[in-house]
Amino acid sequence: MSTISPLATPYEFESFVNPGEERWDSREGAEITTVVVHHMAKTEFDEVPEVWREREASAHYGIGPSGEIRVYVGEEHRAWHARAANAYSIGIECCNVTEAPDWEVSEKTIDSLVLLIQDINARYDRKMRIVGHQCAEGNSAETTQCPGPSLIPRLAEIVRRVNEYDEKIIKG
Predict the structure, then answer these.
(1) How many angstroms separate the first and last alpha carbons of the chain?
(2) What are the EC numbers (predicted)?
């Protein structure tokens, strides 16, 4: 059974992977507790899966500059996006609207990221820990600059917005 957000459009990621290569595998019973936020280091939303042909990597979701959410790997699988955190996390890639050095993302991307994490929290009936890639287990600012200089300072705002929604739901 595939577990994906109803906010997301299925994307035929499998067609981008060479036969015999894997970019996801079993969670082996690990409970999902964390959302890892990434930036794509790309300004063309459609190019992201193509990168994964050359790199052994993947993510559960991608969000484009217009706010479109695509699912690449079902949540029931461990995507290859954050080293030691893969087993218990959901990876979300945010497309950039500018290139280096700023790697900015659009406000529509941020809004959709908040909505997607709110949906994940609701479906799993818990508040997920939200971290940037460099703060996920097995990573650091020395190993990756992801989620980039535009998203890193906004992570606290993203967490606050997600949690405000969750509080409204709890209080009714």
Answers:
(1) 31
(2) 3.5.1.28
Given this model, what pLDDT does residue 57 score? 83
Distance CA 49, CA 11 (A): 9
| Distance from C-alpha of 87 to C-alpha of 94, rounded to nearest angstrom | 20
Number of domains in the chain: 1
Q: What is the pTM of this model?
A: 0.91
Please report whether residue 4 resides in a domain: no
Neighbours of 108 (CB within 10 A): 15
Tokens at 12, concatenated: 């035929």
**Based on the number of CB atoms within 10 Å of its own CB, is 133 exposed (0-12), middle (13-18) or buried (19 or more)?**
buried
39 lies in some domain: yes
Question: Would 1 be classed as within a structural domain?
Answer: no
Instruction: Kindly give the pairing relationship between strand 69-71 and strand 61-63.
Output: antiparallel
- Cα radius of gyration rounded to whole Å, the chain: 15
Q: How far apart are CA 132 and CA 17, in angstroms?
A: 26
Q: Per the structure block, which two tokens stand in for 164?
A: 């405000």
Res 102: pLDDT: 94
CATH of the domain at 49: 3.40.80.10
